[in-house]
Design a protein that fits this description.
- It is built from 13 helices and twelve strands.
- The chain has 387 residues and is an alpha/beta fold.
- The strands form three sheets. A seven-stranded mixed sheet has the order 2-8-7-6-5-3-4, sandwiched between helices. The chain has a three-stranded antiparallel sheet with strand order 9-12-11. A two-stranded parallel ribbon has the order 1-10.
- Helix 5 (95-106) packs across helix 9, helix 11 (280-306) runs parallel beside helix 13 and helix 12 crosses helix 13.
- The termini are far apart.
- The structure holds pyridoxal-5'-phosphate (PLP).
- The site of pyridoxal-5'-phosphate has 13 residues, from helix 5.
């Protein structure tokens, strides 16, 4: 039987392969997994328990509870400076589903969507599943992992529908500069393209940086689909919740996708995050505690990289990823990643899992304790010396 052709075009995740190998070993130190090591803040967890007791166990409206959409619209106005109505907000079952609904709504067969390379590996696969063609925009270290607007312009064709941005970035940990965002906004307006802005890491910024949302720029709201979530900000990866803001006409179309796939986001999860939004002081303290811990770990890992021969790393500005250049070790990214797992018991992700321009790098998630980071660095230092 012939299955859906698009599935053949999707490679199994390069990350999974490593995790499967690591599972059979003891004493592993992992920099692999891209999720907070913290548990969800207490007040949010308690709100979920209460929601269960109160009987929030039914289907919810497809787009999410009305009071949650209202609270999210207020958050988007206050924090992101995007002037939205609740009808312009769609609650989804996580950022991954938000991305898929976005691609599915925008793309006709053969349409092109420009995505960053290296970038979150789900983007390319989802664009293919949605019937489109991903077009890869190189993100280069010599450009401080910033987008080069001229290179971006060169990729636009009559089939281009949208440009995807991700700031702070997985896997580089970099934040797109205001002036670059402004240039991209001009390009989008000139070529009548949508911007898809993945802002899942908006709360994890270092050294006093403030988050910028491109939808808040003049005349950008009507052409931007912004995706935010709780997976990273509230350490809620397993709860599956995120949200989109975009023009209401598009929300209406995306509701059709949700209606026919997920039906609605999890009812209890929705009540829990609503409580978090309604108690901003407590929530701010929890988010800041995690952010400060990531920053401290960033400093520890950066100090460690300096002691490893052949590693060079730009300092991450946000998220919890470091992306050192490892070309001077003489190994390619898969070889080195396998070597570190095999000989040192350390899990990293080869940069080429994030696209061809990720070759020559390893991704380290530093969402793990300072102690683990120090131990892992020590093991790598010794291992690399023996290369
Ligand atoms: N976007 C980026 C850049 C991510 O790194 C991730 C998860 O790692 C997601 C989206 C998906 O998040 P979620 O767990 O909410 O589906």
């Amino acid at each position: 039987m012939e299955l859906n052709q698009n599935l053949k075009k999707i490679k199994p995740s390069g990350i999974r392969k490593l995790f499967d190998l690591a599972q059979n070993r003891k004493d592993i130190i992992s920099f692999g997994i891209g999720e907070p090591d913290f548990t969800t803040p207490d007040h949010v967890r308690n709100a979920a328990k209460k929601a269960i007791e109160e009987g929030y166990t039914h289907y919810t409206p497809n787009a999410g509870f009305a009071d949650l959409r209202e609270a999210l619209a207020q958050k988007l106005i206050d924090f992101n400076h995007i002037q939205v109505k609740p009808e312009e907000v769609l609650v989804t079952s996580g950022g991954t589903q938000a991305l898929f609904s976005t691609f599915y709504a925008l793309l006709n067969p053969g349409d092109e969507l420009i995505i960053p390379d290296p970038g979150f590996l789900v983007y390319g696969s989802q664009v293919i599943l949605a019937g489109g063609n991903p077009v890869f925009l190189p993100i280069r270290e010599q450009n401080h992992f910033q987008i080069d607007p001229n290179e971006l312009k060169g990729l636009i064709t009559e089939k281009t529908r949208a440009i995807l941005l991700n700031s702070p970035s997985n896997p580089t940990g970099m934040v797109i500069k205001r002036e670059v965002l402004e240039e991209i906004a001009q390009i989008a307006k000139k070529h009548k393209l949508f911007i898809i802005s993945d802002e899942l890491y908006e709360d994890i910024l270092f050294d006093g940086r403030k988050h910028l949302s491109i939808a808040s720029f003049p005349d950008m709201k009507e052409r931007t689909i912004s995706i935010f979530g709780f997976s990273k900000s509230y350490a809620m990866t397993g709860w599956r919740i995120a949200y989109i803001t975009c023009p209401e006409s598009l929300v209406k179309e995306m509701i059709k996708i949700q209606q026919n796939t997920a039906v609605c986001p999890n009812s209890v999860t929705q009540r829990a995050v609503l409580y978090g939004l309604q108690n901003p002081k407590e929530t701010k303290v929890s988010i800041e505690k995690m952010r400060a811990a990531y920053q401290e770990r960033r400093d520890v890992i950066m100090k460690g990289f300096k002691e490893i021969e052949g590693f060079e790393c730009l300092s991450p500005e946000g998220a919890f990823y470091a992306f050192p250049n490892i070309t001077r070790t003489g190994k390619n990214s898969e070889e080195l990643s396998m070597y570190l797992l095999d000989k040192c018991g350390v899990v990293t992700v080869p940069g080429n899992a994030f696209g061809q321009y990720g070759e020559g790098y390893l991704r380290f998630s530093f969402a793990t304790s300072v102690d683990m980071i120090e131990k892992g660095i020590e093991k790598i230092k010794e291992g690399v010396k023996k290369l």
